[in-house]
Amino acid sequence: MSTVTIHGHEVHDHSHATPTGWRRWLLSTNHKDIGTLYMIFALLMLFTGGLMAMLVRAELFMPGIQFLQPDLYNNMVTNHALIMVFGAVMPAAAGMANWMIPLMIGAPDMALPRLNNLSFWMLAAGGLLLICSIVVPFLPGGGTPVNTGWTLYPPLSLQVGMSMDLLIFTIHILGISSILASINIIVTLFNTRAPGMTLMKMPIFCWAWMVTAFLLILIMPALASGVTMLLFDRHFGTSFFNAAGGGDPVLFQHLFWFFGHPEVYVLLLPSMGIVAHIVPTFSRKPLFGYTSTVGAMISIGAIGMLVWAHHQYTIGMSLAAVTYFMIGTILISIPVGLMILNFIATMWRGAMSFETPMLFAIAIILLFTFAGMTGVMLAVIPGDIQYHDSYFVVAHFHYALIPGALFGLYAGVFFWLPKWTGHMYDEKLGKIFFWLTMIGFNLTFFPQHFLGLAGMPRRIVDYNLVFTEFNAISSIGAFIFGLSQILLPIIIIKTIRGGRKAGDKVWEAAEGLEWTLPSPPPFHTFSDPPVIK
Ligand code: CU1
Predict the structure, then answer these.
(1) How many angstroms is it from 396 CA to the middle of ligand 1?
(2) Around 516, how many Cα atoms within 13 Å sit in the side-chain half-sphere?
(3) What is the per-residue pLDDT across 320-367, written as a single tens digit (0 to 9) for each?
(4) Could you count the other beta carbons within 10 Å of the beta carbon of residue 59?
(5) Ligand 1 centroid to residue 306 C-alpha, Å
(6) Labelling 343: which of 48, 139, 162, 484 has CA 20 to 30 A away?
(7) Which residues have CB under 8 Å from 268's CB, separation 6+?
(8) Domain locations along the chain
(9) How far is the CA of 300 from the centre of ligand 1 (A)?
(10) Are 200 and 108 spatial neighbours (Cβ–Cβ below 8 Å)?
(11) Residue 111 has pLDDT above 80, yes or no
């Protein structure tokens, strides 16, 4: 324990007493430890949610009901989504924010370290409650499982048993955790930057998280009020969403999607921030259009707040309203396109190399752009009325969120693992992991576009015989995709336990890269002190 001098007195400095053993993790206020906890939690949840997806795909391998009864099937669909969104992607991105933001802006830690600890452990408590809501229906008197899909629409969500109450409480806890973490990130970014590190000099990952954190603070209350009103309707005799009592179930849809659409950008933006670091590093060029990329991210967040009802074209809104939501939605493709074009312009004539993080980054650019195309198809009202509630929508948002969010996080893991652990990961295993993931992912979700266009509805346990072949292909893809993910923890554990030592300039030293440009600009690594000009 060190001593410090305060007002001329030598005193023990308890603030720097680092807990050890299990107390190190439970009581931690260290941003790296908390970041690690977030990511371990996310990895566990990724496999839980993935297992559920594989159960769903196993059930859909053939027409007819194999082994999942309809309620349980719908419960698996629901919890797959909730776990992936709230348990896997958001915590993983928060873990990386914790690890990287203080290092990137030259801060000693997050601005509010104790709040940081609270955010994580509330997340863990929320995760436990979510698991309870899954388990409770299996107990005697446990009632029906949550079979509503992650959107929790009434009137169905008014009829579910007590597992719905547990889920509502879960959402409150997770929402508080997210808001506290967002406050911490915003305060850190505004108040703890090193001298000279102006906002417009911040590494772009910090900007991505700035927008994300503001979005979370703006949208979480809408979801919280929606599920609170649901709770009141369920138990306290109100009729917010109950038409028989003068309420309107459509109100819940507005509250949900006011949260739900910007939530998509909450999942996407941190990953895009990671891509914006990887592409310049492996192209040996600075990011093309830093300012416009920051502007694009802010615009995506801002416009993204205003287009929520494109999820509800079929509820009977006025023509003026649906037209507004259609135009707003299509407008978002402008900043998204700008961001993507900046990434491509960064690669243009760069000295590119293709290690695992870069492979993922390029795959993201291609596959996410494809999701953007089907997104425009879905934004256009007459099209959407045809595709609504079909497998086309499932295919679209998995192409958006798996490349757009999950692969970005994977890219970040491979990119930063040497920094986090001091060791290089196994590049050959990384590449095998990448290609198996690509084959599995595309085989799973590409055929689902055709299923949707041919009329297969989503969220239903059984299907017409005509859909058999494409469903079988999709399920085989899902098994390849799911099983190949086991490589990820294997690679991570191997890296932690050994492997080549990683130097300070990881990506230069590790591959012994030959510069192919005459005088390459030195690429920024965050272990360097923040650039002060
Ligand atoms: Cu949306």
Answers:
(1) 11
(2) 10
(3) 999 999 999 999 999 999 999 999 999 999 989 999 999 999 999 999
(4) 21
(5) 10
(6) 484
(7) 400, 401, 404, 405, 408
(8) 387-522
(9) 12
(10) no
(11) yes
The rounded Å distance from CA 197 to ligand 1 centre is 35
pLDDT over threshold 60, residue 493: yes
Number of other CB atoms surrounding residue 326 within 10 Å: 20
For the chain, what is the radius of gyration of the CA atoms? Answer: 24
Report H helices in 236-318.
Answer: 249-283, 290-304
Ligand 1 center–CA 393 separation, angstroms: 11
Other CB atoms closer than 10 Å to residue 128's CB: what's the count?
11
Per the CB < 8 A criterion, the answer to whether 300 and 332 are in contact is yes
Nearest to 397 by CA among 523, 311, 330, 512: 311
Which H helix or E strand runs over 12? strand 9-12
- Average per-residue pLDDT in the chain? 91
Classify residue 15 as exposed, middle or buried by CB count within 10 Å of its CB (0-12, 13-18, 19+).
exposed
Quote the ligand 1 centre to 308 CA distance (angstroms): 6
Report the C-alpha gap between 97 and 506 in whole angstroms: 20
Band of residue 1 on the pLDDT scale cut at 50, 70, 90:
very low
What pLDDT score does 498 carry?
A: 83
Quick check: bond before 155 cis, omega within 30?
A: yes
Tokens in use for 482?
């799911």
pLDDT of the residue at 502: 79
Q: Cα(270) to centroid of ligand 1, in Å? A: 18
Percent helix, strand and coil across the chain, each rounded to 5? 70, 0, 25
Other beta carbons less than 10 A from residue 212's beta carbon: 28
Q: Measured in angstroms, how far is the CA atom of residue 307 from the centroid of ligand 1?
A: 7
**pLDDT confidence tier of residue 531, bands split at 50, 70 and 90:** very low
Distance from the CA of 378 to the center of ligand 1, in angstroms? 10
Tokens 């407008």: give the residue.
Answer: 331
Among 447, 483, 484, 486, CA closest to 60: 447
Q: Whose CA is closest to 248, among 158, 177, 114?
A: 158
256 C-alpha to ligand 1 centroid (Å) = 11
Indicate the burial class of 67 (C-beta count within 10 angstroms; 0-12, 13-18, 19 or more): exposed
Least confident of 279-283, 326-330, 423-427, 495-499: 495-499
Q: How far is the CA of 91 from the centre of ligand 1 (A)?
A: 21
Instruction: Tell how far the Cα of 253 is from the centroid of ligand 1, in angstroms.
Output: 12
pLDDT in the model for residue 22: 85
Question: pLDDT grade, residue 501 (50/70/90)?
Answer: confident
Contact between residue 311 and residue 253 where contact means Cβ atoms under 8 Å apart: yes
